[in-house]
Amino acid sequence: MDTAPFTQDLAVCAAIFGVAAFVWFGWAQEAPPARWRLPLGLGSALGLLLAVVGGLLAWRVWGTGMAMADPQTRMAFGIVSGVEFGAAGLGAAVLALTKRAQWIPSWIAFVVGAHFVPLAFLFDDPGMIALAAVIVLAAGLSVLVHRRTGLAPSATAGVGTGIAFVVFALRAIALVAL
User: Model confidence over 118-137: pLDDT tens digits?
Assistant: First the structure.
């Protein structure tokens, strides 16, 4: 992948993915096994650290070019984000109203993962397809694990999605640093 034209996008992604890791590891702390508490807290802290590093990198490379500088890309991003938030919110509302709220983290993870497919094309970053696949897999596994073990879907969806965001934040930081 030629990262030169969109170095700023990668740095901003690193910051956003760090925040997302923080949030997902936090959500995983809703009802995990007791022995998971410390690793989840460390995952959240790592997410915050990556968000800061990504933010500093974005500041350092600001003005080097962004896909979001193009008005059509911004509009497409807005549409993708709007569909994502709408689908996540509507699905969460339906799950809550039908007394299936335990599945909300799995649903949100699925929607978040799926939204990276069109973003991969908007940002010309095939790595986002891999991110989408990993997060969708985490969502699906959270359902299977809950059904087999009773472990809260928020714990497994949060861990899987948090780890995915850490890995892809690190990837973005490495690509900016190259």
Answer: 999 998 899 999 999 999 99
Distance CA 18, CA 84 (A): 19
pTM above 0.85, yes or no: yes
What is the chain's mean pLDDT, rounded? 94
CA distances, 66 to each of 13, 130, 148, 175 (Å): 11, 21, 45, 15
Domain range annotation of the chain = 4-177
- Between CA 123 and CA 116 the distance in angstroms is 10
Residues 50-108 have pLDDT tens digits of: 999 999 999 998 887 788 888 999 999 999 999 999 999 999 999 999 999 999 999 99
Angle between helix axes 104-122 and 127-149 (nearest 10 degrees) is: 170
DSSP codes, the chain: ---GGGHHHHHHHHHHHHHHHHHHHHHHTTS--GGGHHHHHHHHHHHHHHHHHHHHHHHHHTTS--GGGSHHHHHHHHHHHHHHHHHHHHHHHHHHHTT-GGGHHHHHHHHHHHHHHHHHHHTT-THHHHHHHHHHHHHHHHHHHHHHH---HHHHHHHHHHHHHHHHHHHHHHHHH-
Looking at residue 87, its amino acid is A
